[in-house]
């Protein structure tokens, strides 16, 4: 399929662009960004946001210009002010701190992260040792860990499995961060199961649909790509994973960039086919600008490579929906029925 809106320079050189689909915004990011925008509309600035609402520089800068104030910790929010918790989730301790400071909170934690939190709480109550596969220091992992710190240990890589110590090898369960490499996580789990044959799996996949779908299409494109460009920020776990997945799947080279201006012309030497994708927190305008930059350098129309069609959406946080309803916002906002995020089809 040729992407109509991207037609520009005709392809005289045979240089191709393969455009991944799905790519970019997932349902959780769309909801979180929308929550901040709706809060700004409803209450007016400033709206405080604890941590980056999603890990994307452009999104944070755009919301900042509209009056969002990003802080690292809850104690930086003035008492009684309104704060949005990011899509990555927060620990119960953060909720407690916010209550102590009298903050009005809007919790934009992705429902798929909340699902992992609930799993952690449930298995901790049953006194399991919980192995949380994820990256120490990542906000999502901090939030999940905070649900049951006495029961959870974090394992970042397959090699770290050797360091795991549990109380009862027959009562161990693994959970994971939502944005990991599927293949590396399965290797970590294989190593865990070698050590703990009775290891229990999560009730359903913790690596979310959006992460899996974006990795799947990259695996399809990568073997044809001399170069894979992943649009996404350096602190975006799923974007960084897409670079690794592309290289593992056969791309000759792969780089992550925040925006078109970071495209290094040296990467294009001898390149005939460029694959392009973007992380789950990336607005499609940034991808379009990369495509336009490539077209200005002689690449042809973008050919869409689609492996899935995503239709999932999440309702806005409940208290924001109720507030919108009270203010007579349009029916879609107030009922929580939302149209899917940015459509990446052509
Ligand atoms: S990447 Fe997955 S878990 Fe994270 S916000 Fe998107 S849908 Fe939710």
TrEMBL record:
One Gene Ontology term of the molecular function aspect:
4-hydroxy-3-methylbut-2-enyl diphosphate reductase activity
Name of the molecule in the record: 4-hydroxy-3-methylbut-2-enyl diphosphate reductase
Q: Which cofactor does it need?
A: [4Fe-4S] cluster
Q: Which Pfam families does the protein's record reference? A: LYTB
Leading EC class: oxidoreductase
| Ranges for region Disordered | 325-346
InterPro entries, sorted: LytB/IspH
Which reaction(s) does its UniProt entry say it catalyses?
A: dimethylallyl diphosphate + 2 oxidized [2Fe-2S]-[ferredoxin] + H2O = (2E)-4-hydroxy-3-methylbut-2-enyl diphosphate + 2 reduced [2Fe-2S]-[ferredoxin] + 2 H(+); isopentenyl diphosphate + 2 oxidized [2Fe-2S]-[ferredoxin] + H2O = (2E)-4-hydroxy-3-methylbut-2-enyl diphosphate + 2 reduced [2Fe-2S]-[ferredoxin] + 2 H(+)
What is the recorded function of this protein according to its Swiss-Prot or TrEMBL entry? Answer: Catalyzes the conversion of 1-hydroxy-2-methyl-2-(E)-butenyl 4-diphosphate (HMBPP) into a mixture of isopentenyl diphosphate (IPP) and dimethylallyl diphosphate (DMAPP). Acts in the terminal step of the DOXP/MEP pathway for isoprenoid precursor biosynthesis.
Q: How is the cofactor bound?
A: Binds 1 [4Fe-4S] cluster per subunit.
The record's comment on protein family reads:
Belongs to the IspH family.
Which keywords does the record carry?
4Fe-4S, Iron, Iron-sulfur, Isoprene biosynthesis, Metal-binding, Oxidoreductase
EC number from the UniProt entry: 1.17.7.4
Residues that bind isopentenyl diphosphate = 55, 88, 138, 236-238, 281
Enumerate the residues binding (2E)-4-hydroxy-3-methylbut-2-enyl diphosphate.
55, 88, 138, 178, 236-238, 281
- What is one GO biological process annotated to this record? terpenoid biosynthetic process
Q: Which domain of life is it from?
A: Bacteria
Indicate whether Disulfide bond appears among the record's keywords: no
Q: Which residues bind dimethylallyl diphosphate?
A: 55, 88, 138, 236-238, 281
**Where along this sequence does the record place binding of [4Fe-4S] cluster?**
26, 110, 208
The active site is formed by 140
């Amino acid at each position: 399929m040729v992407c109509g809106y991207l037609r520009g320079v005709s392809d005289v050189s045979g240089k191709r662009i393969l455009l991944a689909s799905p790519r970019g915004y997932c349902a959780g990011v769309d909801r979180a960004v929308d929550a901040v925008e709706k809060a700004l509309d409803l209450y007016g600035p400033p709206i405080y946001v604890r941590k980056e609402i999603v890990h994307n520089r452009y999104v944070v800068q755009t919301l900042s210009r509209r009056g969002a104030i990003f802080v690292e910790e809850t104690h930086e929010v003035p008492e009684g002010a309104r704060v949005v918790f990011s899509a990555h989730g927060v620990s119960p301790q953060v909720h407690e701190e916010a209550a102590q400071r009298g903050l009005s909170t809007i919790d934009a934690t992705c429902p798929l992260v909340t699902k992992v939190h609930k799993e952690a709480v449930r298995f901790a109550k049953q006194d399991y040792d919980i192995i949380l596969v994820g990256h120490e220091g990542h906000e999502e992992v901090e939030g999940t860990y905070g649900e049951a710190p006495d029961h959870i240990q974090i394992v970042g890589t397959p090699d770290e499995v050797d360091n795991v110590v549990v109380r009862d090898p027959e009562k161990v369960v693994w959970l994971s961060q939502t944005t990991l490499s599927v293949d590396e996580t399965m290797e970590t789990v294989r190593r865990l199961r070698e050590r703990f044959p009775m290891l229990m799996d999560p009730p359903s996949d913790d690596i979310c649909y959006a992460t899996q779908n974006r990795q799947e299409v990259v695996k399809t494109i990568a073997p044809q790509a001399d170069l894979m460009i992943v649009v996404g920020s350096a602190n975006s776990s799923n974007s960084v994973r897409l670079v690794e997945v592309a290289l593992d799947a056969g791309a000759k080279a792969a780089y992550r960039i925040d925006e078109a201006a970071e495209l290094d012309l040296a990467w294009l030497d001898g390149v005939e086919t460029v694959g392009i994708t973007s992380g789950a927190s990336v607005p499609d305008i940034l991808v379009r600008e990369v495509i336009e930059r490539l077209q200005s350098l002689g690449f042809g129309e973008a050919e869409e490579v689609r492996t899935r069609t995503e239709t999932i959406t999440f309702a806005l946080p409940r208290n924001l929906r109720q507030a919108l309803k009270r203010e007579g916002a349009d029916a879609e906002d107030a009922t929580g029925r939302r149209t899917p995020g940015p459509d990446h089809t052509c």
